[in-house]
Amino acid sequence: MQNPSHVDELFQNLQNGDRGALARGITLIESSRSEDSAIASELLNLAFRNRKDSIRIGITGVPGVGKSTFIDALGIHLINLGKRVAVLAVDPTSELSGGSILGDKTRMDLLSRHENAFIRPSASGMHLGGVALTTQKNVILLEAAGYDVILIETVGVGQSETEVSQLVDFFMLMLLPGGGDELQGIKRGVMEMANGILVNKSDLMPDEAHKTCSEYKTALHIMLPLIEGWLPNVLPVSATTRAGIEECWTSIESFKELRLANDQFELNRKQQYEHWLKSATMNELLKEVGNRFELDGELRKALEQIESQGLSPFSAQKTVLQKILSQLPK
């Protein structure tokens, strides 16, 4: 087990720009080993007390829209402006197989090789929010390490993206030109949370991109604004030609300035921390329930009731809950 002085040294190296130390810190936080839990907690406390200003940007869109290529282009643009950029790429693959995580990183070719960038892929596993459970903790470490911009690439396959909005300062939706009505069911709910909309690959289909931008601008005008005084921009971009990248960043900066002027930027952060507290508490509570009350065994008994007695899963769960509650001290 690592001692406190080792944690202090690891944190100091992390603050000094050692990307290896940052990677080790994230690995420690993501570890499922019980002996790493206390160490990770101390590291997070140090990071939270020493975090620096950043802007967190969530980027979502259906697979194939070009999120990774866009992040590569935007990241290089930001580095050219003198900023340090971190990317948390949440992959929809299995935590066991890894799948296409490596593919996501290779699509960020320029960014992955730059000394002022840090890319960390992590599997979303069974978490449907589009964000891995450890992403919040990783953000805190990245801010303590001095990264100015944190880009979070979400799964983007139609699951609820509510968790993303509880994590970032600016939420960006990426679309393809002429996506068609078959994607409307996926995009509608996400669009209502978007602070900005990008129509990527506009260089390949300029007419369709122009039409798609016009359609979404019209749609936004008849929707209730998410942020008072802010109508999300709808911009055509091309990750390959870099067209629209500068305009995209200008829009993000304008949004942040508005939020700062209205004293809403820090308020939003405080509300997010409240959400993180509740989410973390519920996750740990579920773990404790599973560890203390032999939850797997009780679930197996409930499944037998479903099969033998014809109980619905919703009735059977009541027997599980009653068994757990009966063991709690009164």
Notes on the protein architecture:
The chain is an alpha/beta fold. It folds into three domains: 50 residues, Single alpha-helices involved in coiled-coils or other helix-helix interfaces; 211 residues, 3-Layer(aba) Sandwich (Rossmann fold); 52 residues, no CATH class. The chain contains 14 helices and seven strands. A seven-stranded parallel sheet has the order 3-2-4-1-5-6-7, with helices on both faces. The longest helix has 28 residues.
Ordered list of secondary-structure elements with their pairings:
Blueprint: H1 4-15, H2 19-30, H3 34-49, E1 55-60, H4 67-80, E2 85-91, H5 101-106, H6 109-112, E3 117-123, H7 135-144, E4 149-153, H8 162-165, E5 170-175, H9 184-191, E6 196-199, H10 206-221, E7 233-236, H11 245-261, H12 265-292, H13 295-309, H14 313-326
Parallel strand pairs: 1-4, 1-5, 2-3, 2-4, 5-6, 6-7
Helix pairs in contact: 1-2, 1-3, 2-7, 3-7, 13-14
- Please outline the major beta sheet: 7 strands, parallel
Instruction: Output the number of helix runs.
Output: 14
Helix content: 40-55%
Strand content: 5-15%
Poorly predicted regions = 93-103, 181-185
Across the major sheet, the strand order is: 3-2-4-1-5-6-7
Short synopsis of the structure:
The protein has about 325 residues and is an alpha/beta fold.
